[in-house]
Amino acid sequence: MDDIDRLIISESSDCELDLYQIIYDIHFYRPELTITEKYKTALSSLFKLEASQYIEIIEQFYERTDSMVNVSSERIIASSELDQILKHPKVWDRAQNFAAESALIVTATQKGIGAIET
C-alpha cells in the first residue's frame, strides 16, 4: 500500500469521499503530476483498494424537493462494473455531480481502516 492508497482510505473513513476530491487531494500531495497522471494514479488506487476490500464505491441516488436533496437509495458498485463506470469522465466532474440524479462516492471498510491503523 502506498501513500495515495492510505490517503484515500483515511479521507473516506471520516466521511464519504467524492471522486473529484481524490484528484484534488492528489494534486496537493503530488503537485508535479499532470492531470492525466493524477487521474491514472487515482484509478489505479481505487481498483487496487476495492479489490482488496479496503474501500467500497457506492452509487447514491438523489431525490430533489425544492431546495432539498436527499439520498433516496444507494447501491455498492460491483467489481465487474468498476472498469466501465470509473473510466467515464462525467463521474469525475464536480459540476456534473451537483446536477446529477446520482453520484459515486468512496467509503472505507473496516478492513481498510484496520490496514492503515497498523
Write the layout of secondary structure elements.
Blueprint (H helix, E strand, L loop, with lengths): L2 H12 L2 E2 H11 L5 H17 L3 E11 L2 E9 L2 H8 L7 H6 L2 E7 L1 H8 L1
Helix pairs in contact: 1-3, 2-3, 3-4
Structure description:
The structure is a single chain. Helix content is 53%, strand content 25%. It is built from 6 helices and 4 strands, in the order αβααββααβα. The chain has helices spanning 3-14, 19-29, 35-51, 79-86, 94-99, 110-117; strands at 17-18, 55-65, 68-76, 102-108. Strands 1-4-2-3 form a 4-stranded antiparallel β-sheet. The protein is globular.
As laid out across the biggest beta sheet, the strand order is 1-4-2-3
Taken from the alpha-carbon principal axes, the silhouette is: globular
| Element-by-element helix/strand order | HEHHEEHHEH
- Give the fraction of residues assigned to helices: 40-55%
Overall pLDDT metric: 88
Largest sheet: 4 strands, antiparallel
**Percentage of residues in DSSP E strands:** 15-25%
Number of strands: 4
Poorly predicted sequence stretches spanning 5 or more consecutive residues: none
- Number of helices in the DSSP assignment: 6
Oligomer: single chain
From the alpha carbons, calculate the radius of gyration and give it in angstroms: 14 Å
Terminal Cα span = 12 Å
- Give me the secondary-structure category: alpha+beta
